[in-house]
Amino acid sequence: MIFTTTNNVEGHEITSYIRVIAGETVTGINFLKDLGASLRSFTGGRSAGYEDEAVKARESALNELWNRGAELGADAVVGIAFDYSPMGANNDMLMVTATGTAVKLRPLN
C-alpha cells in the first residue's frame, strides 16, 4: 500500500475514493522522562525521552492507519496528516492521530 501526504500518487490515477480513515494511539509519559524534560527545559536542549515517545506514537498511529486501509482493500492512503494532542488530568498522556483518504488506484499508461 502506498502512503503519501500528497493528494495524488505519481504515475497512478485514483479510480475511487473509499473513505476517510484514521489511526490513533495514546501513550503515557513516565516520571523519569518527565523529570528529564523538566531538567532540559531549565538547561536548554532537546528532550530525547519525549522525542522517542512521540516517534513511537506516530509509528503506532501509522500502523493503525495501514491496518484500516488494508481492511478496506485500499491501494493507497492519500493526504495523510498528523495531530498531536496532550491528554489526561495532568497532560501526562499523548494522543497521536494519523488521518488520510483510502483510495483505489490504476497505473497510468
Automatic annotation (TrEMBL):
Signal peptide positions on this chain: none
Q: Which InterPro entries does the record associate with it? A: UPF0145_dom_sf, UPF0145_YbjQ-like
* Organism domain of life: Bacteria
Where are the bilayer-spanning segments? Answer: none
Return the HAMAP family for the record. Answer: UPF0145
Family recorded in the similarity comment = Belongs to the UPF0145 family.
PANTHER family of this UniProt entry? UPF0145 PROTEIN YBJQ (PTHR34068)
The protein's name: UPF0145 protein EJK80_10025
Organism whose genome encodes this protein:
Corynebacterium phoceense
